[in-house]
Specification:
single chain; 76 residues; mainly alpha; two-stranded antiparallel sheet; 3 helices; WH_DNA-bd_sf; transcription regulation; Bact_HTH_transcr_reg; WH-like_DNA-bd_sf; DNA-binding
């Protein structure tokens, strides 16, 4: 994925992760990739990856368990 670095990057990363969630790439209940992995994959800072994950969490797509990571939330 090519990122447009002339505008904020975290929404672009969040949009790609959202697309993957919608496509079923990350099954409900499964652990979501960590911010270190996301940062490495997209070649962004960890804080950028954290903002993208936080946006998905705020949308109710993910939930986080302290010390374990983020997980894909289903349509409960």
């Amino acid at each position: 994925m090519d990122l447009d670095r002339s505008v904020p990057v975290w929404p672009q990363v969040a949009a790609e992760l959202r697309r993957r969630l919608d496509a079923g790439r990350y099954p409900v209940g499964e652990r979501f990739p960590g911010t270190v992995d996301i940062a490495a994959e997209f070649d962004v800072s960890q804080s950028t990856a954290q903002k993208a994950v936080a946006a998905l969490r705020a949308e109710g797509r993910l939930y986080t368990i302290l010390g374990q990571g983020s997980f894909v939330k289903g349509d409960e």
